[in-house]
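Render this sequence as a predicted structure.
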Amino acid sequence: MVVEDASTPLVSVNTLYCVGSRDEREDRTGFAHLFEHLMFGGTPRVPDYDAVASQVGAENNAFTNEDVTDYHITVPKQFLETALWLESDRMHGLTFSPQSLAVQQKVVTEEYHYRYLNQPYGDAWLQLRPLAYTRHPYRWSTIGADIRHVQEATLDDVKAFFADYYTPDNAIIAVAGDVHADEVVALVEKWYGDIEGRQRPSACYPEEPEQQERRQLTLRRDVPAAAMYLAYPMCGRTSADFPATDLISDILSNGRSSRLYNRLVKEKQLFVEIDACVTGSADPGLFVVTGKLQRGVEMARAQAAVEAELLRLAEEAVPDMELEKVKNKFENTFVFSQYKGLDCAMSLCYYHSLGHTDWANSEPQNYRRVTADDVRHVAAQLFAPQRQNALYYEPNN
């Protein structure tokens, strides 16, 4: 896909592979994220990707989540072919040396310890996902269910993963900037046309059963304050209920005029901070309310106050002005998120991976159609008591 934008001297190339942590085997988790690192480990033709990229003034990065792995590079427009050459070269094949694998295994292990074990509340998602999911592969984080899976990965393991998922049949490319579509198509054909197509393994994910009873886990940690994470199973990203669910999170916690901040932080002073968010995953995800309690506040009292606010959404219609406010905020954020060429390219790849490329232009309209009745109906289903997964952090002192 191509976005022609003559207003910028830069060109962004975004490559999205339809592989995330949900595609991993239960005994080989963390591989999608490991590959994000391995893709910068060099190829037979380009031993040092970053060195070549820096020579043409490129900015590049990547990310992995439960559904996709995304790589992007932005260059001055005269180096578009260099960017496509670099990305196609990685798709042709990596070096796969024992040294490169060992280096990236060490990097991922250090990231695991730093981000997940050595930070207050760092292991929250490592604990929350297997609490909320019992069958679906969303039950482990992108870092993996057990870091030993990455540490014990062999060259044969990673070669097989590359062969399965790093193929043209499983990739989406978007180019945005001062380019012409015909030129881009010709260059893509030049550099990618000889890469062998390989069909990826069938994407059949276990369906998560409907949650019938509340679940709870309490952790004692060296944390500065008690904290709660309340997770409720929600719809997937392409569901008709997703816009209403997302707007509910904004009604609750988007800014200092939101309900949770006004009533539970400012008025009742039960929390130091509180937030509500949606995971936004392709398959059914999680709606999560996170709060850090004021010192001396009992967990039961704080949770009851949160649940009262959730119940209000299920029982009382949201005033028109309040609903209009969060819709306006969403549209404002959406429009500004399309401002840069790279943002446009990433957005196109993402929506195309969902099967709704047109949403890159029309997503605000989906949100504009949400009514107060939609919000109340979704909230009543979403916040049913038996669907709650509660994770508590209690300080050691």
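Summary. The chain has two domains: 2-192, 215-395. The chain has a mean pLDDT of 96.
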